[in-house]
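Thread: "does anyone have the structure for this chain?"

Original post by V.I.:
We have the sequence but no experimental structure in hand. Need at least a predicted one for the grant figures.
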Amino acid sequence: MKKILLIIAIVSILIACQKEAGKGGTSSIIGKVITYELSHFDVPGTNQRIDTLGYYYHADEEVYIIYGDEDNYYDDSYETSFDGSFRFENLRKGRYTVFIYSDCESDTTGLTVINQSNPVYAQQLASTIWKSDCVDGDVVVKMDIEITENNQQYNLGDITRFKIESNL
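Reply from O.Q.:
Generated one for you, tokens below.
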């Protein structure tokens, strides 16, 4: 009976000592933020199109991280370096969400109208800047990642954001 109680106590201690996602580990998440500057022309009957004015790795862009999957409040942020890169260090095993904000427009009823006359252009808008979850001109671009090993660097690659320069 004492052995069973001892085994239960040891198992309980081990379970209680499991750490959640967050700081205090040895792994890192890296990536880059790339921005595409766009202009689009929505006048029916004309040359409806999206033009890419330029793209660049975005310096001084705020990147946010959420530890775990318990809530939607960010736990830390990092301002990208001159080359658009970011790095969250000293992370433990667990789930993380990294996100940024991108420009958007929410006129999805207009998108339906455009889709009837120019479905290719409507698809271009839907895949870039017209988002149903657009709030006050911003939409969240997020990436979920799970750190499964210590002493590892996880590369998210490029995270794309859009900057709307003009809407004619």
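V.I.: this helps a lot. DSSP finds three helices and eight strands in the chain.
O.Q.: and Strands lie at 23-41, 49-57, 62-67, 76-79, 85-91, 94-103, 138-147, 153-167.
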